[in-house]
Amino acid sequence: MHELFFESFNTKVQLTKEEELQIAKYLTPKKLRKKQYLLQEGDPCKYVAFVEKGALRSYSVDEKGNEHIIQFAIEGWTISDLYSFLTDEPATYNIDAIEDSELTLISKTAHEELLLTMPKFETFTRLNITGAYVAMQKRLTSIISSLSEDRYESFNAIYPDIVQRVPQHMIASYMGLTPETLSRVRKKMVGR
After folding, report:
1. What is the residue-wise DSSP string for the chain?
2. How many whole angstroms separate alpha carbon 13 and alpha carbon 38?
3. What is the pTM of this model?
4. What is the rounded CA–CA span in Å between residue 87 and residue 89?
5. Nearest C-alpha neighbor of 4 from the set 82, 126, 104
6. Which part of the chain is the Cyclic nucleotide-binding domain (predicted)?
7. Which residues contact 122 (CB under 8 A, 6 or more apart)?
């Protein structure tokens, strides 16, 4: 249980077996069925979720009912509505499972306690938040200034195996494109 979580943790900050056992006491396993919510907009985000198996997405829905995917999370990735988690404000995103999934959850209370009592957990958290901020900044710059073809190439570089795992309309949503535009981009790239 939590094998991939600790494998990921140890690539950033090396833990002893005793430290792993101490952290494991704060972790909660969770299974989600495909299309099942981990979080719904308006609810407080009580967990950070690490994906052991499966795939999830974080998204908002606009007033016209269109979904705007903010993030995918596959094995080894973390997902949450970080703003809601850190501020106790209502969530602005929905998070649901694209596939049947197995997660490792860290509650807000557990997170706070680990930050105070375990310096290595604080370092791991800082590295994750810094990495997420850098990724968000790169994505924002890409959406603002890159051609659709370049965005699709970037998507394939970040999520090399997800193209086979999620519907094309979700990839289009993540890229800020219509499914029709994504289809044209993909055809154009095959012709290169």
Report:
1. --HHHHHHHHHHS---HHHHHHHHTTEEEEEE-TT-EEE-TTSB--EEEEEEESEEEEEEE-TTS-EEEEEEEETT-EE--HHHHHH-PBPS-EEEESS-EEEEEEEHHHHHHHHHH-HHHHHHHHHHHHHHHHHHHHHHHHHHHS-HHHHHHHHHHHSTTGGGTS-HHHHHHHHT--HHHHHHHHHHHHT-
2. 27
3. 0.90
4. 5
5. 104
6. 15-115
7. 114, 115
pLDDT at 191: 64
Q: How far apart are CA 79 and CA 91, in angstroms?
A: 13
Tell me the domain boundaries of the chain: 3-118
CA angle 58, 59, 60 (to 5 degrees): 150
Amino acid identity at 167:
P
- Are 12 and 120 in contact, with CB atoms under 8 Å apart? no
Tens of pLDDT, residues 59-78: 999 999 999 999 999 999 99
Structure-token pair, residue 62 = 């606009």
pLDDT at 192 over 70: no
pLDDT of 159 above 90: no
- Check if the beta carbon of residue 9 is closer than 8 Å to that of residue 124: yes
pLDDT confidence of 100, banded at 50, 70, 90? very high
CATH class of 3-118: mainly beta
Average pLDDT over residues 51-63: 96
